[in-house]
Specification:
Helix content is 81%, strand content 0%. The chain is mostly helical. The radius of gyration is 26 Å and the shape is flat.
Length: 130
């Protein structure tokens, strides 16, 4: 081994650490793609980020399986069924509240948007321009 390659090898992270950094980065990337998907107004951009999310999730899953099979990944402690059920119930309640809120706001905007349009049409003739 040459002194240059010895120097390069000495400065690299151990393989396990490097792979765990990549795994963490893939998880972060999925979160970013998911955010971009939910904030995209353009259907083609939304579809692109959905595809990127899916392919990144597949890659993350493959890397996780590799790390797990080599005992290079320490899984978090297991949750009890009660804890999982509680979190699921909280998530379902939040989702239901968001759906109700969205429906209420949509209804308000639909009924409220007709009145401002009528006012704008009435006021359109009242403006003078200098």
């Amino acid at each position: 081994m040459t002194s240059t390659s010895q120097f390069q090898n000495a400065n690299l992270l151990p393989e396990e650490d490097l792979l765990n950094v990549i795994l963490a980065d893939l998880k972060r990337t999925v979160r970013e793609y998911t955010t971009a998907t939910t904030e995209s107004a353009c259907p083609s951009v939304r579809q692109m980020f959905t595809q990127l999310t899916d392919s990144t999730l597949q890659l993350q899953g493959q890397l996780f399986q590799l790390l797990s099979s080599q005992n290079m990944y320490t899984a978090p402690s297991k949750a009890t069924r009660t804890e999982v059920d509680k979190k699921l119930q909280e998530a379902q309640q939040t989702q239901q509240q968001l759906q109700q809120f969205t429906q209420q706001r949509t209804a308000q905007m639909s009924s409220g948007s007709q009145a401002p349009q009528a006012n704008m049409q009435q006021n359109a003739g009242n403006h003078t321009y200098s």
